[in-house]
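ugh finaly. both done.
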Amino acid sequence: MGTGYSPKYSATPLRDRTIGGHPKSAMGGWNARVFGSHLRFAQTLSIRSTTLDDYFKSGERVDFIKMDVQGYELHALRGARRVVRENPHIKLLLELWPYGLKQAGAEWKEIIELLRDLSMDLMFVTTKGVMPFDARNVRSDAAWYVNLFASRGRRGNPRLPGSRAEPSTG
């Protein structure tokens, strides 16, 4: 098929909008951001925004959310609290990029706190497997990021293969 969709599972595509912390219209204009030692300018455009809580109806089943929004993960998660609370078996896969989060006005510890407030257990996804989240492994340099897997009910599980590995960098 080549689409990435499985006949057993369906994905919900979002069309003509972006996901954020609250519904609004993102403004157009010019945006300047520093990436490492480089200053990049990009023209932005206006696009409608919504939250996952507004997109999905109350009580609608959501099994999995994959999120990589270049530092805006905290904003998107804030707008998905209801969906995560209502779906006890939901799984989340999201990028943790402390440098990008800071550029977006957030701190990486806020994501961890929000996920734990939602009773999520956290695992680093590494090139050698998964390992329990450990804040001592988090770095804030621009090139470092890791994927986080969040789910409920993993506490007490034995260490998984690769559990002593450091999270991989970009």
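ok and the 2nd:
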Amino acid sequence: MVEMQFPKAPCYVCRQPIELKGGIIYCNDFAGNICDLLEYVNIKELLSSENSTFVNQVTKAYFKQFEDVFRTRRTEETDQDFIRNALIDNGAHKYRLEKILKTRPDKWLALLSHHNCIPTFSTGGYHIDLDRINTHEKALAWTMQLNDKKWFNARGWNFILEDLFGRIPV
């Protein structure tokens, strides 16, 4: 029998493979953490700092997990504006970060990551070590537990589960 690769996807931050003992799922109000950090540095400095990779990947994850919040529907703008915004949205940068900080979803973002890829400025939150969610049964138990949390982001959690186990046919 072939052993399943776990997790299926790499770290959301550094894009490197994650070992079972070195990975976490981290749920947090990262937009709030970044707002707190911006009390000390401006956006341009933040995007050129050692935290820029993390901030860019968090920005991409917000746009993926909260697509309904951040994507403008085509009927609301001209085709030229739609194309321009689509091009801008393909790269995480100042425009997208400002949009996230302005909108601030009320649900938390979920990241699949190495322990050491989460910067120290990201405080609070909720984390699950990957060895505590490495089976389908454990994933179901965690889903049931997290579903009761007011900050739970079901769409983001679905992405996490798919990145852990792959798409499972039903």
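summary for the 2nd one i guess: DSSP finds eight helices and three strands in the chain.
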